[in-house]
Amino acid sequence: MVGAVGLSGPVHVELLEEERAQVVRLDTGRACTVERAALPAGVREGDVVVDGRLEPERTARRVHEVARKRALLAVPVPPGLDL
66, 56, 3: which is closest to 31 by C-alpha? Predict the structure, then answer.
């Protein structure tokens, strides 16, 4: 369920729109909608924000974690098979 709420605790920015943003709370995994003005200036999709501040180290760790999980799930393409 997605609802409009305030911004507190660690969140992952999923989608930025002109007036609102969809974020996922990292402690619960629940998606919610916040006013874009509640996010720090310069925030981008994929960033981690904690208590209104960008967290570049946590963002980098999350990017690395997602890349690692995708690599584990990847299916190798046999030689000669053109997708």
Answer: 3
pLDDT at res. 69: 94
Residue 52 · residue 38 · CB < 8 Å: yes
Positions of E strands within 1-83: 10-16, 20-25, 31-35, 48-50, 53-54
The rounded Cα 63 to chain-centroid distance in angstroms is: 9
The kind and range of the H/E element at 67 are helix 56-73
Confidence (pTM): 0.74
**Rounded CA gap, 5 and 3, in Å?**
6
